[in-house]
Write a structure and sequence with these properties.
The chain is an alpha+beta fold and 328 residues long. It has two domains: 247 residues, Jelly Rolls, CATH 2.60.120; 67 residues, no CATH class. It is built from ten helices and 17 strands. A nine-stranded mixed β-sheet has the order 2-3-12-9-14-7-6-4-5. Strands 1-11-10-13-8 form a five-stranded mixed β-sheet. A three-stranded mixed β-sheet has the order 15-16-17. Helix 4 runs antiparallel to helix 6. Helix content is 26%, strand content 26%. Strand 2, helix 2 and strand 3 form a beta-alpha-beta unit. The structure holds fe (ii) ion.
């Protein structure tokens, strides 16, 4: 299975494992105060082991049946960040057919583009014992599904929002690194512009062997990895057969939003991602509430200038890609 995403990153050889916690002994207070409030990643064993999906979705016909006839994009490759690597070979097909194609194993690598799932899938998902209250995020819906065979995700980060990466079926290894480090621009070029490290490990020569705080986590089925905003993460699959990952996303606490906006406004790192109009309005409203509209405006303009952030309409078309404020 492909491992270029982590194998070619020299820092992964000495990466420090993130703290490992047990869901059954983790309180909501401890999760929020010790990890979310400080944007510290952690691995939570057994976080989603009670979800019916963790056992029901291993059954081939059942999974096909609940996915149904909705159209989804099928990728014959990993989840890349650059257009030149993500676009080739993508075809739209019925969800159930895409599942069947992954199950058959015709493609050595394959994935169904991350999507909010179908009504047949939702009853098999449940909540968390250690996290019961969170506001809607700005960037993604609360639950999405990434179904794959040998397909991980290349390095990227989320400018806003908190994520619990829930491993429903199969296992993965994740590399992590805070965006807030002296090599941000170099890493953006390596990770986001060309993804040249994917084929060429020498891409990291530009770091001149400098030690950075690389971290790692090993997820088994039933575990969840807490990924804070503004942390680079790259993911490889460590299990055979079909796998399912469910990213669960919610809004960061106000002080985390404010801190991120201040640093993005100062140019420490770029705002990134696609925001639809409704999400952007929510973000603007939240920034106003905490007195950060000026910072959001600066962060937005810089992110657009760096071609890292875009505003899209409900059909996914770009509606604003000039650094004007407000963009809507
Ligand atoms: Fe991610």
């Amino acid at each position: 299975m492909p491992d270029a995403t982590l194998k070619n990153v020299p820092g992964m050889a000495t990466a420090k494992p993130v703290p490992v916690l047990e869901a059954r002994s983790l309180s909501e207070r401890a999760f929020k105060d010790e990890y979310v409030a400080h944007s510290r990643p952690c691995l939570i064993k057994g976080a989603v082991a009670h979800w019916p999906a963790t056992h029901k979705w291993r059954e081939r016909d059942y999974l096909k049946r609940i996915c149904g006839a909705e159209q989804v994009p099928f990728w014959p490759h990993e989840n890349h960040v650059t257009k030149k690597r993500i676009a080739p070979g993508v075809t739209n097909m019925r969800y159930a057919d895409a599942i069947a194609r992954l199950q058959e194993g015709r493609d050595e690598i394959g994935a169904i583009g991350c999507n909010p799932g179908t009504a047949g899938m939702w009853p098999d998902i449940a909540g968390f014992s250690f996290f019961t209250e969170g506001e809607l995020g700005f960037s993604y819906p609360p639950f999405r599904f990434f179904i794959f065979r040998n397909a991980g995700s290349t390095w990227h980060y989320h400018a806003v929002d908190e994520t619990l990466m829930c491993q429903v079926v199969g296992s993965k290894r994740v590399g992590l690194l805070p965006v807030d480090n002296p090599h941000y621009r170099t890493l953006c070029r390596i990770f986001l512009e060309e993804e040249d490290y994917y084929d060429d490990p020498h891409a990291f020569d530009a770091l001149a062997g400098e030690a950075l705080p690389w971290h790692s986590a090993e997820l088994e089925a039933g575990d969840a990895l807490y990924i804070p905003p503004l942390w680079w993460h790259g993911v490889v699959v460590t299990s055979d057969g079909i796998g399912v990952t469910t990213p669960v996303v919610w809004r960061s606490p106000p002080h985390v939003i404010a801190d991120g906006l201040k640093k993005m406004a100062a140019g420490d790192f770029d705002m990134c991602g696609l925001f639809n109009i409704d999400q952007f309005r929510q973000l603007l409203e939240a920034a106003r509430k905490i007195g950060m509209e000026r910072e959001l405006a600066m962060a937005w303009k810089q992110g657009v200038a760096a071609q890292q952030v875009s505003l899209i309409d409900h059909s996914g078309r770009r509606v604003a890609d000039k650094p004007t404020w407000p963009p809507i």
